[in-house]
Write a structure and sequence with these properties.
The structure holds two protein chains of two kinds. Chain A is mainly α. Chain A has one domain. Chain A is 65% helix and 0% strand. Chain A has twelve helices and no strands. The longest helix of chain A is centred in the N-terminal third of the chain and has 33 residues. Helices cover 62% and strands 0% of the residues of chain B. Chain B is flat and about 90 Å long. The chains are: A mainly alpha, B mainly alpha. Chains A and B meet through helix 2, helix 3, helix 4, helix 5 and helix 6 of A and helix 1, helix 2 and helix 3 of B.
Chain lengths: 350, 136
């Protein structure tokens, strides 16, 4: 089946290509506005407050007001900073985050780039944002920024291996690295999703603890990779002001901020794709499935995971740096290897 | 016809151009009145003491080395994960041997204490020191 509906509708020309490359950008901007509002409102309701109420009805225009504010802010480049790297860092951060969106299967009919190395590509490209973090933190020539950047990188590389093992386990189950193919394999209802071991005979119950475990490991690792609470010491306000983007203001700060929200979307999308069936309907392929329903299910799953991340932020306290390293290297890493080889052995036996 | 990797290049370009447009729009709208105090390094209102480009904690270096080893190993695991079932038990056992060697390395680093962030050697005073202060 053709995986790019715009090429079918508009023909194989540059109009279709532009639509394919720009529409996700528009969607992500909209998503970022909604996510910022959700973060404000969810945190307020969890703490029994009202949250923003004055900008528009129930404060729904608050994110727009913040964009206008950031556009008007004076832009400061510190005299002691490395000017080239300092100004290049926001480009690296956002470009890296946005490039990863290229392979995400939004629906059966809309996969922007259906390459057969999808998982590997996402794994590789998500590292570019890390370079942006180091560039911004180091080039600022500010102690808070440097500390924040170093902590951020140490944290990201510590949790990248468990996350990679979780992603690899689904590559083993699907025998493919193509994200759309991984989705297609999880056909046939909620119990054929990879969190439930994928399609298989009844004795797949033996593999359930390992797929559940890897899903949990990926959830924890993705929180650490996006620098969100409980893993937010790189940006701990009480000790490092704002972490690696302390010196940034105005639109450059906005780009870092947007890059972080896009990263949040990407890890949630990977989680939805490889563990929760992506665009597959939870009732099997005959009920409520199709290209439009596929988009709906995909966005619903991603939205749920994003909400879960926001929820955790206002529930859990921050981890100390040594606890964080212990959790990553001494618990998650060995556990992810055990789960991965248990799944590989199971796949070998059936 | 644009290939699949062509689309990826397009995504890189669009992402880069979008940031450029955003920053240019802001450059048109925003005020710009720099002065030396405004452009100094931020240090919570204090005058900055020295630069930030200093030698840094060695622990980050050890972690980066371990990460590099495991990352290379993940790169080897990626193609293996797709085809190992066709290759049979030989490929499976081979990969287990490979990973066990790496995990032995991890166990060595762990036992050496390089994975623990802090290695405190606290001075724990005995009860006698507290009750009867040392005289010297």
């Amino acid at each position: 089946m053709e995986t790019n509906i715009f090429i079918q509708l508009l023909g194989n020309n540059w109009i279709a290509y532009t639509a394919i490359a720009v529409l996700p950008l528009g969607f992500l901007l909209l998503y970022a506005l909604v996510a910022i509002l959700a973060e404000l409102k969810v945190s307020a309701w969890m703490q029994d407050r009202l949250g923003p109420m004055r900008t528009g009805p129930w404060g729904i225009l608050q994110p727009l007001a913040e964009v206008v504010k950031l556009l008007q802010k004076e832009d400061i480049t510190p005299d002691l900073a490395n000017k080239v790297l300092y100004n290049l860092a926001p480009y690296m951060m956002f470009t890296g985050a946005y490039a990863a969106v290229a392979v995400i299967p939004f629906s059966q009919q809309f996969v922007p780039s259906n390459i057969n190395l999808g998982l590997f590509y996402i794994f590789a490209v998500s590292a570019i944002a890390t370079i942006g973090v180091v560039m911004g933190g180091w080039a600022s020539n500010n102690k808070y920024s440097l500390l924040g950047a170093m902590r951020s990188v140490a944290q990201i590389i510590s949790y990248e291996i468990p996350a990679a093992m979780a992603i690899l386990a689904t590559a083993v189950l699907a025998s493919s690295l193509n994200l759309n193919e991984i989705n297609t394999v999880q056909d046939g209802g909620i119990f054929n999703w990879f969190i439930f071991g994928g399609p298989g005979p009844w004795f797949k119950v033996f593999v359930l603890p390992f797929t559940f475990g890897l899903c949990l490991i990926y959830m924890i690792a993705s929180l650490a990779e996006t620098n969100r609470t409980p893993f937010d010491i790189p940006e701990g306000e009480s000790e490092l002001v704002a972490g690696y983007h302390t010196e940034y203001g105005g639109m450059k700060f906005a780009m870092f901020f947007l890059g972080e929200y896009v990263n949040m979307f990407i890890v949630s999308a990977i989680m939805a794709t490889i563990f929760f069936g992506g665009w597959q309907s939870p009732f099997g392929s005959s009920i409520m499935s199709g290209p439009v329903w596929g988009l709906f299910w995909f966005l619903a799953k991603v939205g749920t995971v994003v909400f879960f991340q926001i929820w955790l932020r206002w529930t859990l306290p921050r981890l100390r740096v040594d606890q964080l390293m212990d959790l990553g290297w001494k618990y998650l890493l060995p556990m992810s290897f055990i789960c991965f080889f248990a799944i590989a052995l199971w796949k070998m036996l059936i | 016809m644009l290939t699949d990797f062509g689309f990826i290049l397009l995504y890189f370009i669009i992402g880069f151009v979008f940031v450029g447009i955003g920053i240019l729009t802001a450059a048109v709208l925003r005020p710009s009145h720099p002065n030396p105090i405004k452009n100094s390094t931020y240090e919570c209102g204090e005058e900055p003491m020295g630069g930030a480009w200093i030698k840094f904690n060695i622990r980050f270096y050890v972690l980066a080395l371990i990460f590099l080893l495991f990352d290379v190993e993940v790169v080897f695991l990626l193609p293996w994960a797709v085809v190992y079932k066709q290759l049979g038990w030989f490929a499976f056992i081979e990969m287990i041997v490979f990973v066990v060697i790496l995990l032995a390395g991890l166990a060595y680093v762990w036992a050496k204490g390089d994975l623990s962030w802090e290695r405190p050697r606290p001075y724990i005073p005995s009860l006698r020191d507290l009750v009867v202060p040392k005289k010297d």
